[in-house]
Every structure is written in structure tokens, then in C-alpha cells.
Design brief:
The protein is mainly alpha-helical and about 325 residues long. It has 14 helices and five strands. The two termini are about 30 Å apart. Bound molecules: adenosine-5'-tetraphosphate.
Length: about 325
């Protein structure tokens, strides 16, 4: 049975993009796989986080993920900093990965913006830590959104180079599990930018904790164009905002985008947006309610995360020890 690993940053409240691009896929994989899910707080601090807000977001992320349908009793859910093997293996990978590889990472270019010199070194080596997250469990299947494809390729390069440099068939190759429908949800303010939980504009995203009124208002104000919805997908090609809203509706209703167009072609956004808003609000209402219920008992949530961390460490620590031995480090 392939072991699944996936992580999500507590860098804000999870968005509809995180849900449709990743978490929903995690939920589906639980039935036939052994899964390790991680709230990656060490990744989050690659950009400055308010400490109190980070603690809150870490718990809220764990609660949201459980509310979306992750079962922390059958699978493993924990926060990354509670299992030191992640950071320890990442250091070894910092020494395996080449600068040329990291220089090609588009996420670093996007996140460091115009002032690259001011970005943290952590942000630059973020993909090495991500490779360590996965390979510390010898996981082979990684459900991620389309935006993470390049990082998975880099993790495979690291695994291959480690195996080559230390003459061992030790780290496996990883496969990304990217959902076919709406793998990338875009910002409601700019259809060419992905929806992000840390975008400065709250209007750019639907958060999983938004109530129905907020969802209706955000979708009503979402940027669109004046033309009605077309009959074919080809006509959406140069209409990123329209394509995004159609994609969200398609993903939430589990139908191909063409079927959405078959239903709404010729109608304006004045007609489509309220239907979409109702669909989003209906999907998120139970998640919001369950997240609130879980957040009302922090000691229970913390205990759950600690149990998850102990089970995660039981897998990752021996794998780290073997990697350290291969490199030539003395046992602790
Ligand atoms: N807009 C998106 N559409 C589809 N999938 C997405 N993911 C994120 N945004 C979208 C997927 O969610 C998973 C967890 O992502 P993450 O929190 O680890 O980091 P991220 O990709 O950087 O997500 P955000 O929301 O954009 O966070 P910030 O704002 O902190 O940078 C990943 O599998 C990702 O593909």
C-alpha cells in the first residue's frame, strides 16, 4: 500500500483553493491508503508570522482539516515542528540539492517578489524541507495542487542524487496526485493569480470559515467581464475570471466544466453568481460548524496533535537514522 504524505501551511485560514486543490483529495485517499497529514508550521515561518496568530492558525488548520473529513484516529495528523526529523533530514537535503535547482523554482520567484535579496534563506530552501517532509516517511504518493508540481519534481531529483551519492537504493520516487478538475483555484480579484490564504485582500478568497452572507458578498463582488457565459470552453480561454468561477462550480458539483457551460451558456454573471454562491455556501457550512466545535476544546485538539506527532515520529525517526548512517554521521 503506497504511503501518502501531504502538508498545509498554517499561514492563515484555509481557502476554497486549499480545499479543492488539496484537502478534498486527501479525504478521498484515506479509504485506500495509509496517510500522514501535516500542518507545516516550519514552512509557514519562511515568511514572518505573528507568533500568537501562528499558534491560533496551526490549531485552526488542524481543526479545519478534520472538519473537511480527515480521520485523525485512522490516519496521522500532527504539526511539523513536533517531529524534529523533518528539520534534521532537511539539513542533509540542503547539502544534496544544488543551487541551480533551487534557482529554477517559480514559487520562490513569486513569493520573494521584486525584492529577492530581502527574502529569508528559509524561503529559498523551502523545497528541500518539503522533500524531507515526504521522504522522512518514504511516502510515494503526494496529493497537492497543480502549483506544487515543480517541488515534487525537485524532491525526486534530491532522492535520486542522495541514492546516487551514497550508493544506496534508499529513498523512493514520489508521485504527485493532482486533482483533474479545478486543480488551481484563482483569486476572485485577479483570475491570473492563485487564490491564497495569505493574500493581503480578504476579498480575493473564500475562507473555509466564511459564513453564507460573506460568501454571497464576496462572489457578488468577484471580478468578471461584461460578456455572458459562452457555450464552449475554448471561448473561456482569454477570460480568466469567468473560467475560474466556472471551474469552482464544476469542482464543487463534481461535473465537467463543459456541463456547467451547457447549463449556463448565454446567461450573465448576474444570474450565475447567486447560484454559485449558494453552492459554495452549502458546501462550506458543515465544515465551518465542525471547525468551530473543535476549536471550542483546545486541550482536546492539542492532545490529538500530540498523539499524531508521536505516531509520525515512530515512522520518521528510524528513516532519518538510516539516512544519517548512510551519510556517515555517528549514531546519537
Ligand atoms: N489556489 C489554489 N488552488 C488549488 N490548490 C491550492 N493550494 C493552495 N492554493 C491553491 C494547495 O493547497 C495545498 C496546501 O498549500 P500550502 O498551504 O502548503 O501552501 P500554498 O500552496 O502556498 O497555499 P496558499 O494558500 O497560497 O498559502 P500562502 O498564502 O501561505 O502561500 C497545496 O497542495 C497547494 O497545492
Amino acid at each position: 500500500m503506497a504511503r501518502v504524505f501531504s502538508g498545509i501551511q498554517p499561514s492563515g485560514v484555509p481557502t476554497l483553493g486549499n480545499y479543492l486543490g488539496a484537502i478534498r483529495n486527501w479525504v478521498a485517499l484515506q479509504a485506500a491508503h495509509e496517510c500522514v497529514f501535516c500542518v507545516v508550521d516550519l514552512h509557514a515561518i519562511t515568511v514572518w508570522q505573528d507568533p500568537a496568530a501562528l499558534r491560533q492558525a496551526t490549531r485552526e488548520m488542524a481543526a479545519s482539516v478534520i472538519a473537511c473529513g480527515i480521520d485523525p484516529a485512522r490516519h496521522i495528523l500532527f504539526h511539523q515542528s513536533a517531529v524534529p526529523a523533518h528539520a534534521q533530514l532537511a539539513w542533509i537535503f540542503n547539502c544534496v540539492a544544488r543551487l541551480g535547482w533551487l534557482n529554477r523554482m517559480t514559487q520562490f520567484k513569486d513569493k520573494s517578489g521584486s525584492d529577492r535579496e530581502a527574502a529569508s534563506a528559509g524561503l529559498y530552501v523551502y523545497p528541500n524541507l518539503m522533500a524531507a517532509d515526504i521522504l522522512a516517511y518514504h511516502a510515494t504518493l503526494v496529493p497537492v495542487g497543480d502549483d506544487q508540481r515543480q517541488h515534487i519534481e525537485l524532491a525526486n531529483d534530491i532522492a535520486q542524487k542522495f541514492n546516487h551519492d551514497y550508493a544506496a537504493d534508499f529513498f523512493p520516487q514520489i508521485q504527485a496526485a493532482i486533482p483533474a478538475i479545478s486543480a488551481r483555484v484563482m483569486s476572485l480579484r485577479d483570475g491570473t493569480k492563485k487564490m491564497s490564504k495569505s493574500d493581503p485582500s480578504d476579498q480575493s478568497r473564500i475562507s473555509l470559515t466564511d459564513d453564507a452572507d460573506t460568501i454571497v458578498q464576496k462572489i457578488r463582488k468577484a471580478k468578471t467581464d461584461p460578456a455572458p457565459l459562452p457555450a464552449t470552453l475554448a471561448e473561456l480561454e482569454h477570460r480568466p475570471e469567468a473560467r475560474n468561477l466556472v471551474g469552482i462550480f464544476a469542482a464543487l458539483t463534481d461535473t465537467p466544466a463543459q456541463s456547467v457551460l451547457d447549463r449556463f451558456a448565454g446567461q450573465g454573471f448576474g444570474q450565475f453568481k447567486p447560484v454559485l454562491a449558494e453552492c459554495v455556501a452549502e458546501a462550506l457550512a458543515p465544515i465551518r460548524a465542525e471547525t468551530r466545535r473543535l476549536m471550542a476544546d483546545i486541550p482536546a485538539l492539542d492532545a490529538l496533535l500530540r498523539q499524531g506527532a508521536a505516531r509520525a515520529a515512530a515512522i520518521a525517526t528510524p528513516i532519518l537514522a538510516e539516512a544519517e548512517a548512510l551519510v556517515g554521521l555517528l549514531p546519537r
